[in-house]
Amino acid sequence: MIVITAPTGNIGRHLLPLLLESAPAHAEELRVVVRDPARLPDAVRERVEVITGSHGDAEVVDRAFEGADAVFWLVPPDASLPPHDAYCGFTGPATKALVAHGVAHGVGHVVGVSALGRGTPAAGRAGLVTASLAMDDLIAGTGVAYRALANPSFFENLLEGAESIREKGVFTDVVDAGRRAPLVAVADIAAVAAGLLLDRSWTGSDSVPVLGPQDLSPDDLARIMSERLGRPVRYERRPLGELYTTLVGHGLDEAFVQGVVDMKRAKDEGLDAGVVRTPETASATTFAQWCAQTLEPAVLS
User: Fold this and answer.
1) For the segment 163-176, what is each residue's pLDDT rounded down to a tens digit?
2) Are residues 274 and 120 in contact, defined by beta-carbon separation less than 8 angstroms?
3) What is the rounded CA–CA span in Å between residue 148 and residue 255?
4) Model confidence pLDDT, tens digit, residues 252-285
5) Which of helix, strand or coil describes residue 297?
6) Whole-angstrom Cα distance, residue 90 to residue 97?
7) Is 2-153+184-209 assigned to CATH 1.10.10.60?
8) Please, is 24 exposed, middle or buried when counting C-beta atoms within 10 Å of its C-beta (0-12, 13-18, 19+)?
């Protein structure tokens, strides 16, 4: 039995079909934890056990982990809380449930969504990333075998600027235009997670970097988007202070916003650049492919 949290999110909606396709061959049953089961496609609801509620709730995770062998763990960002509470506070009930339903009683393996940066000078002052690394330590401390998917920023973050790209030919961020990083597609993160969940021969606690096939800067992204969309696209760098003011103005918790700003600053200082790309850590989807499959329909629709 594999438990999937956040099955309708960016990564979960890619992961669940992969597990459904492979589960029969592995004799695996699937259980999902979801606030609103109506968001699951009918064909999916018919093939999985559904636990309704938040996986930040002690009663919910206790029911979800009962009789389970493995868990996919993803914390949905909560912009109403400081970063430590949003990640570690949310995960607290799950760590207690993992101890209660641990190796001796079932759950022996957990795959979690985390971030690159562990061991770098900026890791302790990287806002949301620092909080996610602390979450990894909490889960590993339960004694389960744990793999933290150490991710850079996602291609999908660019979808937030689809309207600006369509109307103005502009996308924005706060990093230097030449700062290269190993951006990745969420579908590739899901593929790595599926492999780990289905083949649980691994032990102990470790990070698994999931890197895009090449390092790309905002200027690189602009060039590739221009080529794919057939129209000029350029990058504009925003000041960190402007980002802070904008997010607070939208009603987000000030400590959470500071966590976003600190993460962005750390990334601009090379937080994501410390892992060497190898055949094992490199993902398959290029940015040009992702543009054709995902960005182009969103911008040109």
Assistant:
1) 999 999 999 999 99
2) yes
3) 25
4) 999 999 999 999 999 999 999 889 999 999 999 9
5) helix
6) 13
7) no
8) exposed
